[in-house]
Structures are given as structure tokens and as C-alpha cells.
Amino acid sequence: MVVDDHPMWRDAVARDLAAAGYAVVATAGDGPQAVRRARATTPDVLVLDLNLPGLPGAEVCRELVGALPGLRVLVLSASGEHADVLEAVKSGATGYLLKSAGAGELLDAVARTAAGDPVFTPGLAGLVLGEYRRLASDPPPAAADTPDTPRLTERETEVLRLVAKGLSYKQIAERLVISHRTVQNHVQNTLGKLQLHNRVELVRYAIERGLDDG
């Protein structure tokens, strides 16, 4: 699904995606319309502009990621401002691409977003990882280690450690000599055990426990 308030841009992105073989299930031109149509069509990937009338893109992302657990969000924005990037990530976006990217970069970003890999315009990835670390230094919302805390397997912990270091699922698969799908399964299992909702929360959990060190 493609959400942008500029009709020509929205239609061009939708055409490029359709030409590449993607099924574009819906488009929307404002925030409330985006929420309604996404809930109705349940897309796998949402290509989302941040500057939307009616409801900001970050709020659209936050609302839909909470309502549609399988949704991946790729923000496609004209803004490279750090505050916008961090707000998008905190809202649950999987990736952030500037509109200056070419069609090939967009298609690659959509494919990687669909696979659950984080996608960021070069130069922004380090910023995002730094924000993960800052978030992790804040007090956790609840007591972390109670007797009921689920136990992760050795392999799940290993995958979690590499996620916290900022590696993509593909890089983790190569490092551990396992398939991309197996990495995804371990991450999904870990999210379920820890009752977390997305990669941002997972990285925060890992950094809180020092799993990104060593």
C-alpha cells in the first residue's frame, strides 16, 4: 500500500511497484484514509510519507503497527531530519528512505522491508542504532527479570545479540550459517516469548541486558 498526499508521486510509486510484480492493494492521500484503507486491505508493506494531512505519518504508523501485527512500514520521505527519522522508528517503522532515492533503491528497500530487514538511507543507520542505545539507558517500563521471565534458547539469544549489534537478517544468516527464514523464525519466537511487538522493542530489550557488547 502506498500513502502520499501528492497524487502524481503516489501514482508513480504505485506504478513502479506494480511493474515490478507487487500487488498494490490500496493507496491513500491523507492520514485517516490511510488508517481506514490499511485496516480494510491488511497490506504486508506500507510505503508511507510522513507529511500527511489529517493525521501525521508517524501517528498512522503507530496506529497501524499496533493494529496489524504482520505489517512492515517503509517511510518514504523528503525529510532527512534526524528528529523525523527517530520519530518514525519509535512509531514502529522498519525502514526510512529519502525520496531522492532512485526507483531501483525503492524496489530493493520494499523487498528488504517485506523480509523484515531494517532499511535506512546511508548515514541514518548509525543514528538509529545510537537512539536504540539512548532508549536503553532510560528506566525500563516494568521489572524485567521476574521468575516468570521466559527463557530464550542459546540460538535465540545468539540471534538477539546480533540484532542488537545492528546486523540485518541476511548478515545474521551468513554469520551463523543458517537460512534467512530460520533467522526470521527465531526473531518471531523471541518476540512472542518476550511479549514484544517489533524490532525496536527487541533491540531495546537486548541492549538493556548488555547483549550488544562483546
UniProtKB/TrEMBL annotation:
<dbReference type="InterPro" id="IPR000792">
    <property type="entry name" value="Tscrpt_reg_LuxR_C"/>
</dbReference>
<dbReference type="InterPro" id="IPR016032">
    <property type="entry name" value="Sig_transdc_resp-reg_C-effctor"/>
</dbReference>
<dbReference type="InterPro" id="IPR039420">
    <property type="entry name" value="WalR-like"/>
</dbReference>
<dbReference type="Pfam" id="PF00196">
    <property type="entry name" value="GerE"/>
</dbReference>
<feature type="modified residue" description="4-aspartylphosphate">
    <location>
        <position position="49"/>
    </location>
</feature>
<dbReference type="InterPro" id="IPR058245">
    <property type="entry name" value="NreC/VraR/RcsB-like_REC"/>
</dbReference>
<protein>
    <submittedName>
        <fullName>Response regulator transcription factor</fullName>
    </submittedName>
</protein>
<keyword id="KW-0597">Phosphoprotein</keyword>
<feature type="domain" description="Response regulatory">
    <location>
        <begin position="1"/>
        <end position="114"/>
    </location>
</feature>
<dbReference type="InterPro" id="IPR001789">
    <property type="entry name" value="Sig_transdc_resp-reg_receiver"/>
</dbReference>
<keyword id="KW-0238">DNA-binding</keyword>
<dbReference type="Pfam" id="PF00072">
    <property type="entry name" value="Response_reg"/>
</dbReference>
<feature type="domain" description="HTH luxR-type">
    <location>
        <begin position="145"/>
        <end position="210"/>
    </location>
</feature>
<dbReference type="InterPro" id="IPR011006">
    <property type="entry name" value="CheY-like_superfamily"/>
</dbReference>
